[in-house]
Amino acid sequence: MHNKGSFHPYDLRCEYKVDYLGLGERSPRFSWKLHAEGRDVRQSAYRLCVSTGEQEIWDTGKVDSDQSLHITYAGPALSSRTRYEIRVKVWNQHGQESDWSEAAYGETGLLEHDEWRASWITARFEQSEPCQLLRKLFTLGDNIVSARLYATSLGVYRVYVNGESADDTLFAPGWTSYNKRLQYQTYDVTKLLASGENTIGVMLGNGWYMGNLGWNGLSQLYGNERAALLQLHVQYKDGREEVIVSDDSWRASKSALLISELYHGEYYDARLESKGWHNKGFDDSEWIPVSLLGYGYDTLIAQEGEPVRIVEELQPVQVLCTPKGETVVDFGQNMVGWVQFAVEADEGHTVVIRHAEVLDEDGNFYTSNLRTARQTITYICSGGQRECYEPYFSFQGFRYIQVEGIRPELIAASVVAKVIHSDMDQTGTFECSDELVNQLQRNIVWGQRGNFLDIPTDCPQRDERMGWTGDAQVFMRTAAFNMNVAPFFTKWLKDLAADQLPDGGVPFVIPDVLRGRHSSAAWGDAAVICPWVLYERYGDRRVLEQQYESMVKWVEYIRSQGEQEHLWNTGFHFGDWLAMDAPNGSRVGSTPKDLIATAFYAYSSALLAKTAAVLDKLEDAVRYTELSERVTEQFRREFVTPNGRVASPTQTAYVLALMFDLLEEKDRPQASAVLARYVEEQNVRLTTGFVGTPYLCLALSKHGYTDLAYKLVLQREYPSWLYPISKGATTIWEHWDGIKPDGSLCEDPMNSYNHYAYGSVGEWLYRIAAGLDTDVQNPGYKKVRIAPQISEAISYARASYSSMYGTVASGWERLEDGRMKVKAVIPPNTEASVMLPGAAMELVLESTVPVANAAGVHSVRQTETGVQLEVGSGEYEFLYVFK
Predict the structure, then answer these.
(1) Are the beta carbons of 87 and 59 closer than 8 angstroms?
(2) Residues 6+ apart with CB under 8 A from 128
(3) Burial (CB count within 10 angstroms: exposed 0-12, middle 13-18, buried 19+), residue 231
């Protein structure tokens, strides 16, 4: 038995968040982790209590259950603007009772649309380009105990209270399908208010709502007027409440930010500043009254995804003078965010900052791949003092900046790069003995950081930056290892459902700004694949419930498309996008599009059947299982010869057939041998594109060719994952040949150096090389799978993952004495299946004990490939002679 202090619940969360301010979910879910010393510790019961401080409103009593994730609140209806404290205690399998956890909280926002009393306000000037400033002066009484500000905008906004930012979040209200779903934010501004006079100031920019989107120069895709909506609730010690709202008493002015565009950057004229405009002592008598906008509240929802924040700062590593004479700063890392700079100069002096990802083959500043995106910050000095500036409503993708207007010798001390992305918890680590592979992992993570800015964008630098569905779905499993992406993707998937066409078609990008362009295979399949991945990785059943109708609509859309039943051979498809085997002049690989489309038809209908089974929709489960089987049969008739050869002789065709189990069992060994031969005939190089690449190494490992998969991952010559690193890459490239072996750049104008799709190999690094995975029958790492596939090409590999239950880790190392060491960390309240490859049962030690006698080991059996163990929670170290 453990002493009482060694066993307790911690990290209590409400809807994935530690403390949730602005909760909009009426039936929130609670999750926690267990701390326990020793091994094989399981929860046998829990008791959850929810209270409003003094008053308890829901007590589950002791519930006999090992469930510690996603316990759904089932008490009285929650009230708006109420702070709820949550506590939990647990019992282990021996009946030992823990202490109560530390209290967490979930504070609701405005749960009903009719609780909004504010009006939408805007400023109407003859010239609409400059960002707008809005302000309100008001008086408060003494003894303020609490204040919450609820705010949103049409456009993007910053809100200030008495001159201070309401919080550190950026690009609010985020990007959603605005005409259907518009997030509002909740701010705790208690400490920013005082008795007497106070001021709220709002700065409004175009953002995604009104700004340029896409490569055709389109703008105002959602509306043509920026506006703000704010409602401040102030609570006093005596129980009184005062409400300050946006209305026609507010005043407005143009700002010194004359141009602000996500793609193009900003133009700021400091000579036009209204200094102190957001403070209470400012004279706004020359400002104009605001105008009211009758927009309504029906689309408003509480903030769902993680907010965008500055998460890191990078200092310059070098200041260069290029052959053309350009002054260029290298920050050493391709990143997304902006540069803060300081300057002291005369009035009217201009500073210009341009941004680029790479230098050209001659070492000059290179911006051709940005297409029409200018990525330029222009600042006009007010003069007479040291001035500091950083952008408000624009972000850039860059490693290098070109600087004009600051003396070269002063630049290094005058600039700092600020890294910006949705502030998701970092959850995964991977490391091995090959430093280039470790750099590949870092590149994958940096690519995710740069492109997970409120939505999963394809790239962060050129005139695109859209939520391409295909890119998101192929990378999602890797993304879920690296970071906690559950709230991020839950929010994005709701927009996918909102923008889905009435016939079930799925737009190429979400939110849908390429109106009328939709429903390519492997892209639209994000509607089914992404919810399923969230279920696998987080045990999140609710996301399947929320997206089920969307998933069904997509599969039924495919069913309605084919000219021949159970075959998808119509419509536009991207095919194996950017594959190396594409014919000259084409971006589409050689794998037939109808083969790819039918393969994904089978896969999505199979996942839909599994989803229906999870949701106890048994008739649907049978129906979609039968559909998937029929599509698979049709795939074989159409694309597989009687002797079991896939009709299309491409790596991608074989990868999909093997990965999605589309071949008869008897044909799979031959097909996997053919795939292996295709790889070897290319001198161990891939020819796959966006569709085949994510599954290539997984398909090889699944069918016994892990050594070849290792050779592919470790390949240093072009094309390969490590080749870009030899050219200085610090993120994943869109093209395998973004920089060619001779140093010249890919001339394709669609050439991003921060494009995460090919980073999907990260899933293989975690699941196969390190051997860390979840069991889909017990999702969310309730049952962990530890099964490293070992290679002589490296001497060790290890990974860790911060799951909803706690840290999971797997790793192996070849010791100098010839033995193999395999480590596993299994958090309390979970169990694991562990495979020790190449082990003989009688020779395996766990630490210093024969494995069969080790604490926490439930069963041991010998298999053809090694020793299979079933273990409980704890830390294990297995030692054996590797055969």
Answers:
(1) no
(2) none
(3) buried
The active-site residue out of 304, 306, 536, 734 is: 734
CA 817 to chain centre: 42
Contact assessment for residue 776 and residue 405, using Cβ atoms and an 8 Å cutoff: no
Reported as a pLDDT band with limits 50, 70 and 90, residue 128 is: low
Structure confidence at residue 126 (pLDDT): 72
Residues 6+ apart with CB under 8 A from 845: 851, 878, 879, 880
Report the Cα–Cα distance between both ends of the chain, in Å, rounded. 39
Does an H or E element contain 310, and which? strand 308-314
Question: Bridge partners of 739?
Answer: 745
Q: What is the pLDDT of residue 1?
A: 33
Share of the chain above pLDDT 90, in %: 95
- Give the Cα separation of 698 and 692 in Å (integer): 10
**Contact (Cβ atoms closer than 8 angstroms) between residue 71 and residue 30:** yes
* Inter-CA distances, 550 with 50, 498, 525, 569, 621, Å: 33, 9, 11, 22, 16
pLDDT, residue 239, reads 94
Enumerate residues 6+ apart whose C-beta is below 8 A from 488.
305, 306, 422, 424, 452, 456
Cα torsion for 58, 63, 67, 71, to the nearest 10°?
Answer: -20
* Residue 264 Cα distances to 278, 399, 513, angstroms: 26, 17, 18
Q: What is the 3-state secondary structure (H, E, C) of 724-750?
A: HHHCCCCCCCCCCCCECCCCCECCCCC
Q: What angle do CA 497, 498, 501 make, to 5 degrees?
A: 80
Contact by Cβ (8 Å): 743, 461: no
Taking the CB of residue 467, how many other CB atoms lie within 10 A of it?
25
Mean pLDDT computed over 262-272: 97
Q: Hey, what are 304's tokens?
A: 């769902």
Tokens of 802: 């911060």
- Residue 9 to residues 67, 499, 827, Cα–Cα distance (Å): 13, 40, 12
Annotation marks residue 734 as catalytic: yes
For the chain, give the mean pLDDT: 96
**CA–CA separation, 47 vs 183, rounded Å?**
33
Burial string for 59-76 (b: 16+ CB within 10 Å, else e) reads ebeeeeeeebbbbebeee
- Which token pair is 90? 């647990």
Angle between helices 706-714 and 435-451 (to 10 degrees): 80
pTM given for the model: 0.97
Res 127 pLDDT > 90: no
What's residue 599's pLDDT? Answer: 98
In the chain, how long is the greatest CA-to-CA distance? 88
Q: d(Cα 7, Cα 98) in Å, to the nearest integer?
A: 6
Distances (CA, A) of 796 to 538, 770, 789: 28, 9, 11
Neighbours of 151 (CB within 10 A): 22
Cα 464 to Cα 370: distance, rounded to the nearest angstrom:
9
Angle, helix 469-482 to helix 435-451, in steps of 10 degrees: 120
Cα gap 49→300, rounded to integer Å: 30
- Joined tokens for residue 739: 């920089």
- Selecting among 25, 261, 357, 464, the annotated active-site residue is 464
